[in-house]
Design goal:
pyridoxine biosynthesis, 12 helices, oxidoreductase, Isopropylmalate Dehydrogenase, elongated, binds the ligand NCC(=O)COP(=O)(O)O, binds 1,4-dihydronicotinamide adenine dinucleotide, twelve-stranded mixed β-sheet, alpha/beta, 17% strand
């Protein structure tokens, strides 16, 4: 069964990386692209890539050598090949690509989902109401009206960083740190590390929110009043946890290397360390969903789109990790 790759923002680097990987790298897991076939052909020609675009009726259709299979979701919308220039008209295609890909994974026609980067601002101006893929995918995976709690994890080998809150302004993070959020996040991380990464009893570190993890309640009380009690309760249920630990020293390599994952309290607390050490290799994984979803760690890189420059290593790692996670699960 192929992987489903949503093409992402057409003005961005995502389509280039998909095309370059298909043309230049052998031995990748089989995949099909969800997006606009005519746009993919135009971007391929711009990049001088010798690859035919083959429109598929269904993802399992055989794709001849020298071709890349595309499930065309353009539905009459002309997606322009203009690197670096967003176009509101393309937004429905970008969104539909994700929706169709999720549906094909959920219905067993594809093994897992890999998303190329979207430009959040471009989608917001076209009326998209989800902060990012992570929250949108959770909504698409709702069952009986229940939306699963999605957990973002950035992973490179044993370095796995999880922001407990995701795409939210910093000034409301503190209000969102609740015992329920800490509990749910730890439970999902531990379960998915076991089921999808083979870490039988994951050892997880949890960061504090405030400098020095609150310094005993003198520089903030979330650690004392919320995070520590939640961790104590979870330890009582058998989870192997350290923390709350000061966020500034937790990512010192000898420290994080002794854990299977580090849970941070907010987006940048988790993502800055991993992007600093592994920007071109780390993968964004969504935990807590009934499907496997990965993505490169970077965004749309408008300055590189359409140039053939830029690294495809994170996208390649996302494809390989999606394949290995879905094999482990099946
Ligand atoms: N999964 C997703 O859909 C993601 C989407 N984004 C979105 O992407 C847009 C742009 O975000 P930025 O913060 O500018 O981040 P960005 O990752 O697009 O770019 C940051 C810097 O990294 C460089 N860069 C990015 N990818 C690269 C690659 N493959 N090889 C070499 N250099 C690369 C860019 O040229 C730029 O200098 C935003 O709308 C953001 O929300 C950001 C991260 C993930
Ligand atoms: N910085 C990571 C990021 O913004 C990716 O978000 P998502 O689109 O995967 O939810």
């Amino acid at each position: 069964m192929p992987l489903a790759i949503s093409m992402g923002e057409p003005a961005g680097i995502g389509p280039d990386l998909i095309l370059r990987l298909a043309a230049e790298v052998t031995g990748l897991p089989e995949f099909v692209v969800y997006g606009a076939a005519s746009f993919m052909a135009a971007r391929s020609a711009r990049l001088g890539i010798n690859l035919q675009i083959r429109t598929l009726d269904w993802p399992g259709e055989p794709v001849p050598e020298g071709c890349i299979g595309v499930i065309d979701v353009a539905d009459g919308i002309a997606v322009a090949d203009r690197p670096g220039e967003t176009d509101t008209a393309a937004a429905p295609v970008v969104v539909r690509a994700i929706e169709r890909a999720v549906s094909d994974v959920r219905e067993g026609r594809c093994s897992a989902l890999v998303t190329a980067p979207i430009h959040k601002g471009a989608l917001y101006s076209a009326g998209f109401t989800y902060p990012g893929h992570t929250e949108f995918l959770a909504a698409l995976c709702a069952e009986n009206g229940r939306i699963p709690h999605p957990v973002m994890m950035l992973a490179h080998e044993r370095f796995r960083a999880v922001p407990a809150t995701i795409h939210v302004p910093l000034h409301i993070v503190s209000k969102l740190i609740t015992e329920e959020l800490i509990t749910q996040t730890v439970q999902i991380v531990a379960k998915d590390l076991r089921d999808r990464f083979g870490a039988e009893r994951a050892r997880i570190a949890v960061a504090g929110l405030n400098p020095h993890a609150g310094e005993g309640g003198t520089i903030g009380v979330e650690e004392r009043d919320i995070i520590a009690p939640a961790l104590d309760r979870l330890r009582g249920q058998g989870f192997d946890l350290a923390g709350p630990l000061p966020g500034d020293t937790l990512f010192h390599p000898p420290h994080w290397q002794s854990y299977d994952a580090v849970i941070a309290m907010y987006h940048d607390q988790a993502l800055i360390p991993i992007k600093t050490v592994a920007f071109d290799k780390a993968v964004n994984v969504t935990l807590g969903l009934p499907i496997v979803r990965t993505s490169p760690d970077h965004g749309t890189a408008f300055n590189l789109a359409g140039t053939g420059q830029g690294s495809y290593e994170s996208m390649k790692a996302a494809i390989e990790l999606a394949a290995s996670m879905s094999e482990r699960r099946n």
